[in-house]
Amino acid sequence: MARNRFAFFRGEIRPVEEAKISVMTSAFNYGTGVFEGIRAFWNAEEQELFVFRMREHYARLLRSASVLLIDLPYGVDDLCRITLELLRREEFREDVYIRPVAFKASEEIGVRLHGLASDIAIFAVPFKAYLPEGGIRAMVSSWRRVEDNAIPARAKITGAYVNSALAKTEAYLAGFDEAIVLNEDGQVAEGSAENIFLVRDGVLITPPVTANILEGITRDTVITLARDLGIPVAERPVDRTELYLAEEVFLTGTAAGLAPVVEIDRRTVGTGKPGPVFTRLHELYERLVRGKEPRYRAWCTPVYSSPAR
Ligand code: PMP
Which one from 104, 128, 156, 168 is the annotated catalytic residue? Predict the structure, then answer.
């Protein structure tokens, strides 16, 4: 697989070999960073790479950063410009995953947020499917989701991903593809790195933003598409057993895209095959991220023919 050659680091696009932090870096020791996952999709007919909802991702990054008192000398426009420049330097002609990470960069001992220098790095790598295709087998994790008053899931904090990693590996070692994590109230929060949707009686249901979830951009995309298609949507608390009784369950995320769940805790979901609501949304999503749906084209920023060039 082709690799990346560059990274944005310490204010410049440099060879990726030069983009290194110290073992003493505060964020490496304490998990005090915030990050994003953004994707860009290759459209072969147009010979163009489209970055999906880039502004929304950088707006979320800056919101996450403000929670950790990470001050950056860049706004959303700057970060979008830098990202487009990085992708052009890489000359990617395939799907890629973009990883910005803003962090406490001071090299000193002491757990705190105040009085430390901040920095941001951005790199992008070629990327294919994150989850197995055709249907996910999931388990409800024995690990609970981090609480807003412990480590806010709403801010995409590097250290909080220990929680996701524990859940994901527990599921993997038990022979499943993915974990579904409950919050401390015992209600469904999300997957290890995806939001979750259910279909019951034709209504598309997803836990509310107050359920200790990441406020996913794919989640927002799916809610928007469902409303545009006339599918009723409810954001409300979800019980564990509703997962077993749903007609359909699927996960959403930048890396995962829309991924159908066909089995949970060894119970077959619906017919055991991707359902009709999922299929409709998935087909539309796969087209629109590549700029193939005029109605949603504003979500896609072209890399090579961008007017900002
Ligand atoms: N929840 C968690 C915990 C995640 O890490 C992600 C991936 N960023 C998501 C949900 C999905 O969010 P998005 O659609 O913005 O990628």
Answer: 156
- The widest CA-to-CA distance across the chain, in whole angstroms, is 56
Give CA–CA dist 259/250, Å, rounded.
5
Query: What domains are defined for the chain?
Result: 6-128 (3.30.470.10), 136-288 (3.20.10.10)
Query: 212 alpha carbon to ligand 1 midpoint, in Å?
Result: 12
Judge if pTM exceeds 0.85. yes
Q: DSSP class of residue 157?
A: B
Q: Could you tell me the distance, in angstroms and rounded to a whole number, from the CA of residue 202 to the centre of ligand 1?
A: 24
Half-sphere exposure of 173 (CA within 13 A, CB side): 8
Contact 178, 264 (CB under 8 A): no
Q: What is the DSSP letter of 292?
A: -
- Over the stretch 95-151, which tens digit does the pLDDT of each residue have? 999 999 999 999 999 999 999 999 999 999 999 988 888 899 999 999 999 999 999
According to DSSP, the residues that pair with 33 across neighbouring strands are: 103
Q: What is the pLDDT of residues 31-78, one digit of tens each?
A: 999 999 999 999 999 999 999 999 999 999 999 999 999 999 999 999
Residue in 58, 129, 73 with CA at minimum distance from that of residue 301: 58
Nearest Cα residue to atom 12 of ligand 1: 216
219 lines ligand 1 (CB under 6 A): yes
pLDDT of the residue at 306: 65
Q: CA-to-CA distance for 172 and 181, rounded, in angstroms?
A: 14
> Which residue's structure tokens are 């017919």?
271
